[in-house]
């Protein structure tokens, strides 16, 4: 029977150092595991918590906690506002399309 491994604890500074190095060197999760002995699940969890994900390079790493929290808060507020106004925008676009489509008795106007 395999002996369970003990969990290693990382400080915030160690996490930031590993995430920064991984981003700078464009490392995959497997490469992070080989270089730093951090399992991929843990690495992806850190990335998600720090705001660094695929396609969003350069955000939140190394920022003090207060600034990172502010960034997360602003992003959340913007997302909420967009979700509130998006249905209205879509309705307006659909109405405009339908009005243009049916205003000529079903025939489209030539431009």
Structural write-up:
By secondary structure, this protein is mostly helical. The chain has helices at 12-24, 29-36, 40-50, 65-102. It has two domains: 10-62; 64-105. It is 63% helix and 0% strand. The longest helix has 38 residues, at 65-102. The model is unreliable at 55-62 (pLDDT under 50).
Order of helices and strands: HHHH
Q: Kindly state the mean pLDDT as a whole number? A: 81
Number of helices: 4
Number of strands: 0
Biggest sheet features: none
User: Which stretches are low in confidence, meaning pLDDT under 50 for 5 or more residues running?
Assistant: 55-62
What is the topological layout?
Layout: H1 12-24, H2 29-36, H3 40-50, H4 65-102
Helix pairs in contact: 2-3
What can be said about this structure in brief?
The protein is an all-alpha fold. The protein has helices at 12-24, 29-36, 40-50, 65-102. It folds into two domains: 10-62; 64-105.
Task: Describe this protein with a few key phrases.
111 residues; mainly alpha; 2 domains; elongated
